[in-house]
């Protein structure tokens, strides 16, 4: 029996799991109670691969998938891996503008979507190059059995995802992720801390169009662990689900720890089987409180869509770094350096940009060689994050250098929101920045210059917000709105956002869309 470190791609990983743990429960989907064994995953993904092949999907073809947390999403991912195809996950919150960009830019030929999304994808298909839009049931019904179908031979460096993520400027970029990317990430979590094994039960509450549930699937295949999939994150019932399924380890991020702490304490808080929790951006001031309440250690982990799993806390460093902002040490497959503006290492203890290199990183940004070259300048991937490294090699996260808004764990490109606003016929100029927010980390604030003689009574913020909501995902719609006569400009005629950020009170004179009032 092959070990995880001897496996080169997702197909081998799945085949190994189906042979080693054929009758063991691999997935549990909480909403429907549907369960899959490892052998069933292999069989069902094979059936979908046959259907996709009959549809005309060939090695290298991109297939967009717009589904919620339902079994067909990971099954289609594995089916495409068997065909040598490439998955293009589509955020289920996307609408006309962001959806069109992802489909057109990725070059997806086909789309498989839930019935609720087929209307949207069909309407934008003429502008994207999509040939067909089908539901999973239609896909299986249309393509007859192909008993002569065989698995496509692949290798570790073949792309299996184009995973879109918002960069600092412009529309979302497509990260080209290979089999090696997923194998490296899954293998490290199975063989290093947290050393997930076939005795573990994992849980994910994030949408499948993000990488987190996907690497949870890969980790389950590598380790034999059972994965519980929730429809989404519900703070009020999350720990009840953890107890119900006997979860032993899970990963969370963003606002999730804070929202969990805000739930009323109960006598059941420590009645669970969780042995460890991994999380990104654990609030420093709440770290010890989180551990005290649930009686389990929380371990920092750092990674990006572009790079996979890079840095994580281990039990050896945990106790003395709780609440310090320490994110741990680089994984064995990853090198990390704190660099100055010229790309040279800074002395230990000094602040610089966190840069990374090693195996299992993305191949680059799809169809964007300039962005790829910038990201990998000097042979290191530039994260755009500020950090420092102590004398022992532990890394401490300090902030971001990118012009990107981090709202409740979502990366929002300010430029993308601005471009959506500029589509409004009454908007002449627009600028978007992030402003501090206690609950969400950052909220989005939009400065709008209206055309002609229009004023805020003619074009109220609620109308602008509604316009944005029709073009972009809900989490990209600004909360705060300011109508201004002009925007400060640099000599090169760019908006001087530094001037906008200098305000002592970012909320004075703004309209608050949540509270529905002017401040």
Give a structural overview:
The chain has 519 residues and is α/β, with parallel strands linked by helices. Among the domains are: 32-144, Rossmann fold (3-Layer(aba) Sandwich), CATH 3.40.50; 404-518, ANL, C-terminal domain (GMP Synthetase, Chain A, domain 3, 2-Layer Sandwich). The chain contains 16 helices and 27 strands. Helix 1 (10-20) packs across helix 8 (211-223) and helix 7 packs across helix 8 (211-223). It is globular, with a radius of gyration of 23 Å. The model has no long low-confidence stretch (mean pLDDT 92).
Keywords summarizing the entry:
519 residues; alpha/beta; Rossmann fold; 13-stranded mixed beta sheet; 5-stranded mixed beta sheet; 16 helices; 27 strands
Layout of strands and helices, then pairs:
Elements: H1 10-20, E1 25-29, E2 34-37, H2 38-55, E3 62-66, H3 72-83, E4 86-89, H4 96-106, E5 110-113, H5 115-124, E6 132-134, H6 136-142, E7 159-165, E8 173-178, H7 179-191, E9 201-204, H8 211-223, E10 226-229, H9 238-245, E11 249-253, H10 256-261, E12 276-280, H11 287-294, E13 298-304, E14 308-312, H12 315-321, E15 326-330, E16 334-339, E17 352-358, E18 364-365, H13 369-375, E19 381-389, E20 395-400, E21 404-407, E22 410-413, H14 414-421, E23 427-437, E24 441-450, H15 461-471, E25 480-483, H16 497-501, E26 511-512, E27 517-518
Parallel strand pairs: 1-10, 3-4, 3-5, 5-6, 9-10, 9-11, 11-12, 12-13, 24-25
Antiparallel strand pairs: 1-2, 7-8, 8-18, 13-14, 14-15, 15-20, 16-17, 17-19, 19-20, 21-22, 23-24, 25-26, 26-27
Helix pairs in contact: 1-2, 1-8, 2-3, 2-6, 7-8
